[in-house]
Design brief:
The chain is mostly helical and 323 residues long. The protein has one domain. It contains 14 helices and two strands, in the order H-H-H-H-H-H-E-E-H-H-H-H-H-H-H-H. It is globular. The two termini are 27 Å apart. It comes from Sporosarcina ureilytica.
Length: 323
């Protein structure tokens, strides 16, 4: 399935977030600047792209018609996702942040019952609550087993402080990101393309990021040049490229919970790219044999997701049962 390939490609660019956020924290940069600067740097690139594609008019229309839900789900998907993630980087190495973040693929599957699906029945269109795709859930657990194998060699070094301040915020973010993304897809129902949607959500959250940057200015002062440069790289790589690719993939399969779960599961490959990146940039040690085995399990899980997304019929069976 092409969307899985797009999802894996996005995870390569997403990996930059975990590596550079940790790098900025190690060099003394504040998480307040790391989180807000990313979205400030995203904005001009997205503005140029949407302007070039002549997409401002429909975007503005959607924002004006539904300002409150648009703002709410944008905050959930962007602010409540990225602020906890950068905060956690102050207490956890990149591998732990990236590893814990993989719970987002489980969160995406478990959130399925919160969304409705319109199906055709003999009595006409009917809205029904969606069911958790059990096959996708089972494959997701296989991927999480691989993540656990990667984390085991490091688990003995995790302190209570790291657990409370470096893990719990990530758990919160892991649910906020897919929930906000899915709510926005349901709200817009394909009326905006990916670039318009990412720009609109970024614009909606700028006031929140401005408030966070003011707090940063008062409490820690201006960001260093190193943090500005690294935040710029994160903004372009993760904020513009990765987010756009990931939203594009999820938009394409938004009406099939099995395929949507498969696309969201591609983010598990981030951990592989983070380990490789931290080895190259931050000088961490080579993965252990157990960690390499975990990587193999993740690859097997992603292969199963890809096969199921391409040949599974869970959505068809579900529709037949309901009709």
């Amino acid at each position: 399935m092409r969307e899985i390939g797009i999802g894996i490609l996005s995870s390569i660019f997403f990996a930059v977030t975990f590596i550079l956020n940790r790098s900025m924290e190690l060099s003394g940069g504040s998480w307040l600047w790391s989180s807000s600067l990313r979205f400030f740097f995203m904005l001009p690139f997205l503005l140029v792209i949407v302007y070039y594609r002549k997409g401002f008019a429909p975007m503005k229309k959607e924002m004006r018609q539904q300002p409150l839900p648009f703002f709410l789900w944008s905050v959930v998907a962007f602010v409540l996702f990225y602020a906890p993630l950068t905060y956690a980087a102050a207490f956890s190495p990149g591998w732990l942040v990236a590893g814990t973040w993989q719970l987002t693929i489980l969160a995406g599957v478990l959130l399925t019952p919160f969304f409705m699906l319109t199906i055709q029945t003999k009595n006409g269109p009917q809205n029904v609550r969606q069911r958790i795709p059990l096959v996708s859930l089972s494959i997701t657990f296989i991927i999480l087993i691989g993540v656990v194998f990667i984390q085991i060699p490091h688990a003995q070094n995790v302190t209570i402080q790291t657990l409370l301040f470096g893990v719990l915020p990530i758990l919160f973010a892991a649910f906020a990101y897919p929930f906000g993304n899915r709510k926005m897809m349901a709200l817009l129902d394909g009326r905006l393309d990916t670039f318009q949607r990412v720009l609109a959500m970024t614009m909606m959250t700028i006031p929140v990021w401005a408030l966070i940057s003011i707090i940063a200015l008062v409490t820690v002062g201006l960001p260093s040049m190193s943090q500005l440069i690294q935040s710029f790289i994160v903004g372009v790589s993760s904020g513009v490229i990765a987010t756009t690719l990931f939203f594009m993939a999820t938009d394409r399969v938004r009406n099939d919970q099995g395929k949507l779960a498969a696309v969201e599961a591609t983010q598990s490959t981030q951990l592989i790219f983070v380990i490789l990146g931290e080895m190259a940039i931050l000088g961490i040690a080579l993965p252990t044999t157990l960690a390499l085995f975990g990587i193999i399990v993740i690859i097997i899980g992603m292969s199963l997701h890809s096969f199921h997304a391409a040949y599974g019929h869970s959505n068809t069976i579900f529709n037949n049962q309901k009709s």
